[in-house]
Amino acid sequence: MAVSARTRKSARLQRLEAAINYPIDWLEERSGLVGGLRYFLFRKVPGDSNWFHTLGSATLTAFLVQATTGVILAMYYKPEPKTAYASIQHITNDVTLGWLVRGMHKWGASVFIILLFFHMARVFLFGAYKYPRELNWIVGVLLLVMGMAEGFTGYLLPWDQTSYWATVVGINLNGTVPFLGPYIAQFLRGGAEIGPDTLARFYSIHMLLIPGAIFALIGLHLYLVVRLGVSSPPWSKEAAGADWVEEQVTTNGRSGLTQPAARSSWRRNGGDAE
Amino acid sequence: MGEWKIVHFFLDPNQGDVTRRTAYIRYNGPLNGAPSFTIISNRCAHLGCPVQPNGPSFPDQTKSIDTGGGQHVTLIKMLPAGGFGCPCHGGQYDQEGNRTAGPPVRSLDRYEYSIRNGHLILGKTFSVAKVKGSGKDAIIYRYRLAGPGQHITGWEQIFYPLQPPQ
Amino acid sequence: MSAIDERRSQFKKYKEDVKDRGKPFYPYAMFHDTVMSLVVVGVIVGLASVWFYTSGENPDTCGGKDSCLLGPRYSEPADPGTTNFVPRPDWYFYFLFYLLRIFKWPDSVILGTVGIPTILLIIAFALPFLDIRSERRLSRRPVAVVAAILVVISMGELTYKGAVAKEALASEVVAAVPQWAQREGFANDPKAVAGANVFAEGGCTSCHTYLGTGGGNLGAPDLSAEGSKGKGVQGLESYVADPSKFGNTVMPKFGAFASIPAKDAQGKDLGISQLRVLAIFLDASKGPK
User: Fold this and answer.
1) B149 and A82: CB-CB below 8 Å?
2) Is C252's CB within 8 Å of B82's CB?
3) The CATH number of C170-284 is which of 1.10.287, 1.10.760, 3.10.450, 3.30.450?
C-alpha cells in the first residue's frame, strides 16, 4: 500500500518531497503542462526507430543555436550602412568570444540548411510524407522556404561587397516575378534604391518576422509529429503498421501481428504505377 | 571627342557610400550648340551586377573634383573598345549599351543630363530598349526606368505592366 | 474497402503496433537525439573555430599569410559604385546562381529567376498529393526513387558547377599574364606579352578561358591553344575585329582596338595597334608547354 510505504520514510524526506511536488502540482493543476511533458517524454515510438530519426531534432538544435547566437549578435550589431561593417569587425575581433558567436551563427546557418535537406531526404525515402502525415510535410517545406529566406536576408547584414552585391542580384531576381515583381523589389529595398532602409528592413525580417514564423511552424511540426507518430524505416521487418510485415511473418511461419483487414492491401496498391 | 570616362559619384552625398554610383560617360562633341554626352549606367540589365568596360582603363589619368555639398566626383580615363561586359552571367553590350550577347533583356540604362554653368549635371535614370546609330546622332528608344531583368519591349513586357511610384 | 478506409485501418494498426511493441521516447530515442544534437553543436563550433583561426583581420591576407580554409572573415566593405566585383551567393543558392548562367538568352531569363524555382517549390508542396499510394518500401517505389536520384544529381551538379564557376576580373586576370607568358613560352616576345595584357584588360576573359582563368560564359571556347589552329595573325586579327563576318554573332566586335597604339611593359610604343598585338598573342598561344 502506498500509505504504509510512505509512513516508513522519515518525516524530513516527506517534507522535502512535498516541497518539490508542490510547485509541480501547482503548475499541473493550472496548466496541465506537466502531464503534457510526461506524455511527450514517455510516449511510445516505433521500436525500430533509429539514428535516421535524429535528423529532425538535429535540425531543431541547429535552429536553436542560430536563435541563441542571433540574440547575442543583435546586442552588438548596428544595422546602419555607415556602422554595420565596423560593428561586424568589432564583434569578430574585439568582443569576448565574439568570433565564436558570429562564427557559429555564420556556419550554423549552413549546417541548418544541410540538416533541413537531410531531414527532408530521410522523410522522402521513408515515405513518411504519406497519409496521414501530408500536412506535416507541407509545414516542413514551408520551414525550408523560411530557412532559405533567413539565409538570403542574413547574407546582407555584414554589409561587405559579397553581401551587398548578392543582395542586389537577389532583389532583382524577385523583381522579375511577373506583374508583382517591381513591387516586391520595391518592398524589399524599402524604396527605389538600396539604402539604409533596405538594411533595417532586412534586419527586421531576418530577426523578427521569419524567426517568429519558424518558431510557430516548428511548434506545429512537433505537435503533428507527436500526434501522428514517426514512421518506422520501410525496410524494417518489424515496421509498425506495415502490412508487408505480416507477409514476411507468415512466410517465415512466425505468428503475432496479423491484421486481416490490411492483409491484401499491398497487393492491390503495390504495382509500379506511382 | 569620343573620349570615355569612368565616373564615380554620390547620388546623395549626405548618405555617404551607400549612394555611390558609377556611370560611363563619353563626350560626343557639340550638338545644336551644346555639348552632347552619352551617359551609361553600370547596372546590368540582366540582374543588376556592375558592368565593366571591355578595354583598358588608365588609373594614372584620374581626376578628382569636389563640386560642393559633399559631392566628390572621380573621373578615370578608359577605352571600352569591346563595349561593356558583365562578369556575373556574361551579358555583353556594345559601346552604345546595346545588348550584343548573353541574357540582358534590354540595353543598358542611361542618365538624363543637363549643362549648368559649364558643369555636367546628371539627372534621372531611364531604361533603353535599344539605340540606333551612335554618338550624338544616336536614336535612343527611351522608356520609363524598369528594374533589371524586366522586359520593356517584346511580348514579355505584358509581365511588367506597372512600375511602383518612385 | 475504399482506399481511404484502407489507409485509415493501416494507420490504426500503426498506432496499435507502436503501443504494443514500441519503446518509450525517453530514454531510448532521446538518447540518440541528444548525442546527435551534441554532434551538431560540436560541428558548428568546429567550423567556427577553423574559419576564425585560419583567417586574419584583413580579407587581403587570404591566400598569403592566412590559408582561409573556410573563407575570409568578411570581404571588403560594400561599395555600390564598384566596377570590379563579382558577387556570389551563399553556397545553398549556388544552384540558382548557375541556373542564371544557363539561361543565357533574354527570353529565357524569367525561367531561371522565377520559373524553375517556382515549379520545384510547387512540386515539393504537392508531393504528398502526387504520390498517394501507401507503399513505403523503396523497392516498390521506382518512380519516387528515380525522381529522387535525378533531383539529387541535378541539384548537386548545379551546386558544384556554381561552386567552381569561374569569373574573371580584369584586375585579377592582368596579374596572371606573366604566368601565361611563362607557361605558353612567349615571355621573350614583347608584342605577345602586350597582346596578353590587352586580352586580360579587354574583357575577353568575361567569356573565354585561358589556362584556367576566365569566365567560360556563353559557350566561348578556351583560347589556351588558339594559335595552333593555323588561323595566322592576319586571320585572327580580322576575326576578332568583326566575328559576325565569320558567322559568330555572339562575340562582340573588337575592331575598335585597331585605333589604339600598343605599348610594351615599359610604356614604349610598339608601333602597331592593340588589335594586332592581340592577334600576335593569340597566334603565340600554342598551348601550355
Assistant:
1) no
2) yes
3) 1.10.760
